[in-house]
From TrEMBL:
Region (Disordered): 1-34, 97-116
Native organism taxonomy: Eukaryota, Viridiplantae, Streptophyta, Embryophyta, Tracheophyta
PANTHER family xref list: E2F-ASSOCIATED PHOSPHOPROTEIN
Identification of the protein by name: E2F-associated phosphoprotein
InterPro entries, per database record: E2F-assoc_phosphoprotein
Length: 153
């Protein structure tokens, strides 16, 4: 049985010919989908979308890498969180509403008292392509991203 396998793999067989990948590539013509100026074109498009504003990052979905936001601000305290007003490829989940934290503050003696302000209501925001949760939107329609991949703006 081993003799049969060795005979099939022998380099002397005329029916099999090994060809390297370089031999199959035709370098005389330019690649069909190559554009040497694509980076400059995309940078101009992003500037036009921002309307002259600068951004701290471009945010992408962590699951499918779809662009979520071109113009955002990094959170002052939590450096992995961002906020934005203009987003793309995001869907608001109206059914699920959450109110983070308690609406109470501690007084000087350490006992809890009711805060003057009302608790803010948030709705979940997910990627419109793959439905991954990427953040929340508040009552003032500001998006808060806490599950997104930032890249250089």
């Amino acid at each position: 049985m081993n003799e049969k396998c060795e005979a099939e793999d022998s380099p002397n067989r005329d029916s099999q010919q090994i060809v390297s990948d370089d031999d199959e590539i035709d370098y005389s013509s330019k690649p069909e989908f190559y554009d040497p100026k694509v980076d400059e074109k995309e940078e101009l498009w992003a500037r036009k979308q921002r309307g002259g504003r600068t951004s701290d990052a471009v945010l992408s979905c962590p699951a499918c890498f779809t662009t979520l936001c071109l113009d955002c601000q990094r959170h002052e305290k939590y450096v992995t969180q961002y906020r934005a007003m203009f987003v793309v490829n995001c869907r608001i989940n109206d059914e699920e509403v959450s109110q983070p934290g308690s609406n109470r503050k501690r007084n000087r003696r350490g006992s809890r008292t009711e805060a003057d302000s009302t608790a803010q209501t948030f709705k979940r925001v997910c990627c419109s392509v793959c439905s991954t949760d990427v953040g929340v939107i508040d009552e003032e329609e500001v998006y808060h991203f806490f599950n997104a991949i930032p890249s250089e703006a």
